[in-house]
Amino acid sequence: MSVTAAKGFTAAGIAAGIKDNGHPDLALVVNNGPRRAAAGVFTANRVKAAPVLWSEQVLKSGRVEAVVLNSGGANACTGPLGFQDTHATAEKAAEELGVSAAEIAVASTGLIGLRLPMDKLLPGVGAAAAALSPHGGEKAAIAIKTTDSVHKTAVAEGDGWTVGGMAKGAGMLAPGLATMLVVLTTDADVEAPGLDKALREATRSTFDRVDSDGCMSTNDTVLLLASGASGVLPGHEEFAETVAKVCDDLAQQLIRDAEGASKDIRIEVVNAASEDDAVEVGRSIARNNLLKCAIHGEDPNWGRVLSAIGTTSAAFEPDALNVAINDVWVCRNGSVGDDRDLVDMRYREVRITADLAAGNASAVVWTNDLTADYVHENSAYSS
Amino acid sequence: MSVTAAKGFTAAGIAAGIKDNGHPDLALVVNNGPRRAAAGVFTANRVKAAPVLWSEQVLKSGRVEAVVLNSGGANACTGPLGFQDTHATAEKAAEELGVSAAEIAVASTGLIGLRLPMDKLLPGVGAAAAALSPHGGEKAAIAIKTTDSVHKTAVAEGDGWTVGGMAKGAGMLAPGLATMLVVLTTDADVEAPGLDKALREATRSTFDRVDSDGCMSTNDTVLLLASGASGVLPGHEEFAETVAKVCDDLAQQLIRDAEGASKDIRIEVVNAASEDDAVEVGRSIARNNLLKCAIHGEDPNWGRVLSAIGTTSAAFEPDALNVAINDVWVCRNGSVGDDRDLVDMRYREVRITADLAAGNASAVVWTNDLTADYVHENSAYSS
């Protein structure tokens, strides 16, 4: 269902030859209106890929006609010539669709530091435009895969309107945003400011809290396009909740497909003095390599959780900290709690609960374990 | 030569039975004076082991008679009873040596969250006191090993005085300080404030810049004891340089013995606007798991260096960044530079130079690669 679940959108996914292996590598998503409102959230990395710099400008108008996405190359750290390549991609799509290049967003994913093969990419944009279909969402989702083992799509229904989307990402899931490209579409008749508010609220509690390996990408892009084709303008809260539902679904798919992982780790920080404290502590636990190794070894090593909490500036007293692993409170009052042998860690999902005993706020951060497969995949990636 | 290289010190290292495998696990270092001045630097982790809480208090007086160190258990996250165990350890040593427990520092290393076997440790303190020798430094260094493959000692000579030391640490080398226990001794006749100044200056540019896996320990302790037995009071600069030399030597030994590592990575950040910027960027590169995997795979993946720089708040323009790997400038002006195939990465030491083109400050941070062996060692550690 993907990006064509909502009315008013067509999409395509084709093999343009950007990837040497002949797999699909170019996607096009077109908003056929009547409205063409859009919002976007981008990587917080200060080293931004050319398509991010381009699309940030496009999104300032709150209007997007179409999105061109490619896998097989990130077009990051490619200098002024790389930016020209993104510009040329937008121009080509604009020409095919008979619209302005200033309303074409571009997103890229793949290796950093390599120019894109424009002799293949530009004809690919033409081929994708010719293949556009109201049933093309699935193919578009497939074309943006890199090391993803599966393509990722999600849909949620409102009252007479729909939000759908696709995502790509399988590693480098990190702060701010993960290395992911996400396009969400809706036929709800929402203007750009409403889209922006809903998207920021949704990403803040979903994609922003998926932290597979702590590494922030140069290319993260999350776009939300509205066609208005349903003719329905939902209330903000209802709309925002539905967008968040689709984001949450896609974020869960990302964490489950993280490179080389054998465990999905749900870290819930409770009784924090503030939500910021809860997120800071959650992230610190999520990024602790020693803990991630221990979880891989099915070792309920709560000492490493406390170590990670101790590096934060959150409000807490060391002697008041409690930690549960898979619901067994193995650490109570900063010291040994219930018998660690009671913790059953055979399953893929591991739940860590960190009780800061400092207030009423909470947050959930997801991460993965650290495995020899992760090392292997990321040692061999570019060679 | 270790902690008994300087005059006025005796030491011992024995097997007290704290470790199940019968290896040496208890060390005692005694300052026989005439002066008994001391300074200490401890972990910045807010979750501090009982011996750290104890020794921080002891060091406030600037006077230390002796240090008891044990491997085989960190005595961290052990609550009030764990603190009583540390207190009892100091009392026992004080009784053996005929001094006050308030002048006995204690340091522990090993697993978190387990009480120490005091029925073995306390008799061990007695046995160590009986074994004290002016040639005991080497044995003391051996007794503090945990996963260390070798024991670590260093010595530097001043004009008529000496600084010597021992260190333990092979993983969890991190911010602020690594998981390490370090005892430095000198027969220079320096009072506590002079020791404190020299030690802080030295750790700031040595141990503080060794960041093997980004995980901060609960137990890090670096102590500097002065006996004054040489009768020489060196100038501050000369003394501080010699202390820094011993710290640098030990820090290098720590990084070379990091758990499961196959590469030692020297990250030099140059042309930064400030030293703080240089250190922030160095640490961000040092902690990037994707880069650490790439280096393991002998892949000069400069894109991951730029990605890591981009997550910092340091002053730089993305288009002005330059990166060299083993002296080949593979990234120039934020984009593709010299041929990456020119980079020879077969050797254990890898040098990354990040040029921020923003000023005149610089800093060096050391880290290791991320390997399947690291994952294996840290998955299996407590089981």
UniProtKB/TrEMBL annotation, chains A, B:
Active-site residues, as the UniProt record annotates them: T179 (nucleophile)
This enzyme's EC code(s): 2.3.1.35, 2.3.1.1
Binding partners and assembly: Heterotetramer of two alpha and two beta chains.
Function: Catalyzes two activities which are involved in the cyclic version of arginine biosynthesis: the synthesis of N-acetylglutamate from glutamate and acetyl-CoA as the acetyl donor, and of ornithine by transacetylation between N(2)-acetylornithine and glutamate.
Similarity comment: family membership: Belongs to the ArgJ family.
PANTHER family for this protein: ARGININE BIOSYNTHESIS BIFUNCTIONAL PROTEIN ARGJ, ARGININE BIOSYNTHESIS BIFUNCTIONAL PROTEIN ARGJ, MITOCHONDRIAL
Record's protein name: Arginine biosynthesis bifunctional protein ArgJ
Organism for this UniProt entry: Streptomyces meridianus
